[in-house]
């Protein structure tokens, strides 16, 4: 009321500008998307990102690259390895999110008091993982630098997750990064544990 200006300047911006600012990981853009828009694609986006990861891992398996006959696409649709890769990707994502929630609850229990706080943070984390969609172009335009591209995509997703935590819970930069790192450690730890027990090859 005192400045006679909108609190959220992105209300007046074109969606393309908002998307560009979100890609640049600007806190104000994340705040606008999370609190002032009615985006309800969190679950669908999560499933699609998991499918992208599973597809990338499935392509990297030697068995799936042995037969390149285009008439054999139906067999590829029935590949059990793809579903196994989807399960592994889901397990990793769940471990990562669990690690973040445990860290934040342990460091600042007052931040996650209610169920709505958990749901808002979960939606923010799922929505901020949109960078995983870049896995598809990285696979399609395969070149010598593909492993480097995949590493950059992973770093970008972690930065986006950190920014989403920061905006949702109104924190400084340190605690979100700590939560993301612990989530990453737990994710890798769970995968290593399953590899040792023989559940994951």
TrEMBL record:
Transmembrane segments: 85-106, 118-141, 148-169, 175-194
Domain of life: Eukaryota
Membrane topology label: Multi-pass membrane protein
Subcellular location: Endoplasmic reticulum membrane
Keywords on record: Endoplasmic reticulum, Lipid metabolism, Lipid transport, Membrane, Transmembrane, Transmembrane helix, Transport
GO biological process assignments: intracellular sterol transport; regulation of plasma membrane sterol distribution; sphingolipid metabolic process; sterol metabolic process
Cellular component GO terms held in the UniProt record: cortical endoplasmic reticulum; endoplasmic reticulum membrane; Golgi apparatus
PANTHER family reported for this sequence: ARV1 (PTHR14467), PROTEIN ARV1 (PTHR14467:SF0)
Protein role: Mediator of sterol homeostasis involved in sterol uptake, trafficking and distribution into membranes.
Membership in a protein family: Belongs to the ARV1 family.
Protein name listed in UniProt: Protein ARV
Organism (species): Leptosomus discolor (Madagascar cuckoo roller)
């Amino acid at each position: 009321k005192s400045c006679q200006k909108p609190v959220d300047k992105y209300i007046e911006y074109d969606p393309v500008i908002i998307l560009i600012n979100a890609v640049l990981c600007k806190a104000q853009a994340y705040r606008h998307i999370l609190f002032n828009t009615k985006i309800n694609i969190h679950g669908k986006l999560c499933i699609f990102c998991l499918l992208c990861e599973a597809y990338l891992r499935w392509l990297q398996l030697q068995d799936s690259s042995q037969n390149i006959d285009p008439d054999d696409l139906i067999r590829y649709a029935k590949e059990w390895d793809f579903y196994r890769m989807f399960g592994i990707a889901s397990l990793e994502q769940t471990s990562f999110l669990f690690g973040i929630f445990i860290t934040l609850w342990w460091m600042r229990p007052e931040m996650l008091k209610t169920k709505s706080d958990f749901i808002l943070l979960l939606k923010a984390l799922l929505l901020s993982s949109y960078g995983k969609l870049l896995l598809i172009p990285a696979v399609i335009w395969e070149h010598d630098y593909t492993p480097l591209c995949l590493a950059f995509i992973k770093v970008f997703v972690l930065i986006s997750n950190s920014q989403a935590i920061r905006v949702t819970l109104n924190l400084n930069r340190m605690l979100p990064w700590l939560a993301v790192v612990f989530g990453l450690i737990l994710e890798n730890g769970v995968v290593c544990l399953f590899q040792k027990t023989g559940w994951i090859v």
